[in-house]
Amino acid sequence: xxxxxxxRLQLGSLDLDVELTAKPGEVLAVLGPNGAGKTTLxxxxxxxxxxxxxxxxxxxxxxxxxxxxxxxxxxxxPVGFVFQDYLLFPHLTVLENVEFGLRSRGLPRTRARExxxxxxxxxxxxxxxxxxxxxQAQRVALARALATEPRLLLLDExxxxxxxxxxxxxRRELTRHLATFSGIRLVxxxxxxxxxxxxxxxxxxxxxxxxxxxxxxxxxxRPRSRYVxxxxxxNLWRGQAEDRQVRIDGATLAAIEAHQGEVFVTVQPRAVALxxxxxxxxxxxxxxxxxxxxxxxxxxxxxxxxxxxxxxxxVSRAAVDDLGLAAGAEVWIAVKAAEVEVxxx
Amino acid sequence: MRASASAxxxxxxxxxxxxxxxxxxxxLFALPLLGLAVKAPWKDALRELGSPEGxxxxxxxxxxxxxxxxxxxLLGVPLAWVQARVEFPGRSLLxxxxxxPMVLPPVVGGVALLLAFGREGLLGxxxxxxxxxxxxxxxxxxxxxEAFVAMPFLVITVExxxxxxxxxxxxxxxxxxxxxxxxLTRVTLPLVAPSIFSGALLSWSRALGEFGATITFAxxxxxxxxxxxxxxxxxxxxxxxxxxxxxxxxxxxxxAVLVGLRDRYLxxx
Lengths: 345, 269
Known about the structure:
The structure holds two protein chains of two kinds. Chain A is α+β, with helices and mostly antiparallel strands. Chain A has two domains: about 5-230, 3-Layer(aba) Sandwich (Rossmann fold), CATH 3.40.50; about 235-345, CATH 2.40.50.100. Chain A is about 25% helix and about 40% strand. Chain B has a domain at about 65-225: MetI-like fold (Orthogonal Bundle). Helix content of chain B is about 75%, strand content about 0%. Chain B has helices spanning about 5, 15-40, 45-50, 50-85, 90-105, 105-115, 125-130, 140-165, 170-175, 180-190, 195-210, 210-215, 230-240, 240-265. The longest helix of chain B is centred in the first third of the chain and has 34 residues, at about 50-85. Chain B is globular and about 65 Å long. At the A-B interface, strand 7 and helix 2 of A face helix 9 and helix 10 of B.
C-alpha cells in the first residue's frame, strides 16, 4: 500500500507541481500557508480535479495519468475524503450519511452501525447533521469516509472548524481514530501543532511546491522557508558561506562549522543578546541596531530589530523596559558563533 | 435587571412608512377579493356551484392544470439542470427564451403555439400527417398551452435552487462512490426538492388561472377546452352571478392550496 504522486496542475493563479511518496500505513501532514495548494492536492488525489500532467499511483493502480489518457473518476477510487466543513448530507440522518458510501459501493449497510459505535455516536444515529456539534459532525464525517474502507484517507483541515477548547480534546480523539486505520493518511493543516500531533512525516507545501519534508523536528530545526521559520519562531536567512563566515545581504555572520556556497542560517531568538553599550566579550557577532517593534508573550518579549542584519530577539519584559526598546532605542546586538546554525540550501 | 426588562417588546417595531406602504399593498390584493365575496349571490350559491357547466369547467381546470404541472416537472427540471450546470454557447439566449412566456401576453403565446402546433404549423403539420395527432382545440392543447405559460416559473425556481445549493455536497457524494446518476437522484434532487416544490406550486397556480393562451390555442369548447377562467369570462355576458360564483371557487381553491401547502412547507424549513 504505497502512494506515488507527481502532480502538475494549473488552476487559476495556483501552479501546482508536487512530487511526493507515502509508504504503506504512513500518516503524512501537508503543512502550508493559505493558497499553497494543499486542498487542491487533496482534490487531485480524490479525483475531483484532473491533472494537467504527472501521474498518481496508489498500490500499483494508476489513478490519473494524462499522458496515458487514464483517469479514474472519484467514485471508483479507493479514497476517503473528510472535508474541512465535513459536508454531511443535510437531508439524511447520521446513519444514512454513513450508509451512503456503503450503498454506493455495494457494501453491506450493517457496517454503518458498527462505525457509529466505534466513533461513539450510536445514540445519534437518527439525528440530522444540523443538530450535531462540530466535534460530532467531524466524527460522523470520519466514520462516513472510513466505512467504505478506503486505502487512502484524505483529511482537509480536520480541526480548523472547531473552537479552541474542544480542539485539543478532538485532536487526541482524531489521533486515536486515525490509529485504527491502516491505510495511508494525508492530513492537510496550517497548524504545526496539529501536524506534529497527527503525522509521522510533515510535507511543507508553499506556492504549489514541496519545500521540505521530514519529521516535525527535522523541519523546524532546519527551516527552508520564511513560512516554516515563522512557525518554528526562529530567525532565518539565506546567504553565501565561505568557510566559517556567511555573507547575508551585505552583513556577515560568524559560525563555528565551515560551509561553502548557498546556505540557510538560523538563530534562535533567545540566543540573541541586547546591550545598551557595545559589549566587550566573547560573542563573535556584534552589531548595532534599532528596535522597531515588540510583541509580548507573558513575561517574555519578542523584539524586532533593524540595522545591519534584521533579527528578532527574545528578552524578558524587564529588559524591554530597561533598554527602552518599546520606544525604538538604539541597541547593540550580540550573537555567539556557537548559536549560528548553518546548513546547505 | 428588574421586571421592567421583561416587559420590553421583543420584536422591533417596523418603520411607520414601511408598514403603511405594506398595508396598502395588502389592501390592493384584499379589496378585489372582498368585492367578490360581498357581491357574490350567496343565496343561489349552491345551485350555481352544482350547475353542470360549472362542475365540468372545474373538473377540466383541475385535470389540465395538474397535467400541465406534471409536464412542466418532467421537462422543466431537466431544462433547469442544463441551464444551471452545462456551459454551452447560447446559454443566455436559451435562458431568455425559457422565461419569455412570463412577459409575453398569453394571447401572443397562443398564436405562437398555433403557428408551431396548429394544423398548418411548423411541427403540427407533421404531427397530424404522420401520426394523426391534433393539438389545437383539444384538451391536450389546453395542457400544452398551460404548460407553455407555466413552466418558466418552475424552470426559474429550480435553476435558482440548483445554483444556490452547495455543489461540494455532490463532490462529497462522488468521493463516497456515487456515480453521476446516483449523485443526481440521491443528493442533488433531494437538496433542491424545496425549489422543485415551490416551482411546481407556482406553475400550477399559473396554469390554473391561464386564459389567453388557452382560448387562443385551444378555443372554448365546454367539456373539452373550457376551463374555469374561460367559463367565468363567458358567463359574465350571460349570467354574471354564476361568473362571480365560479370566480369564488377559483379563489377558494387557489387560496386553500397556497395557504395549506406553501406556508406549511416553507415554515418547516
